[in-house]
Design the sequence.
């Protein structure tokens, strides 16, 4: 646009729509997680390499299972501060517990790991 040229209505509308989407979409993705101690850590640390949907759609795990999954993520290159691991583990186990089948048995071990489908630039995180 040249200096002194008026902004067209179409350009202004596009700018407003873009600004609204940019402000609403991050808030929507944050609302996927239940409130609680550890929510911000999950958003910040887990959201660095993959969508929070990867966490919310996970099969669920026991506290030991989530700790194991965090160890896998660390081995794949995730930068998780040691003091945040207990916070993450407790939050994830409380809010995304191990799912059981109709007979009461564990269902998590049969469907593959949480790391499938993450969209981190590191190809080690890619879905197989």
Sequence:
């Amino acid at each position: 646009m040249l200096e002194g040229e008026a902004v067209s209505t179409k350009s202004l509308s596009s700018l407003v729509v873009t600004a609204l989407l940019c402000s609403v979409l991050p808030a929507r993705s944050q609302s996927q997680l239940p409130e609680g101690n550890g929510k911000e850590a999950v958003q910040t640390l887990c959201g660095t390499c993959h969508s929070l949907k990867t966490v919310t759609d996970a099969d669920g795990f026991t506290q030991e299972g989530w700790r194991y999954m965090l160890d896998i993520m660390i081995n794949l290159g995730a930068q998780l501060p040691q003091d945040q691991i207990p916070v993450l583990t407790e939050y994830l186990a409380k809010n995304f517990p191990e799912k059981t089948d109709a007979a009461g048995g564990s269902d998590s071990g049969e469907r593959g790991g949480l790391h499938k489908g993450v969209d981190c630039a590191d190809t080690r995180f890619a879905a197989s």
Observations:
- Residues 12-31, 108-113, 115-128 have pLDDT under 50 and may be disordered.
- Residues 35-125 form one domain.
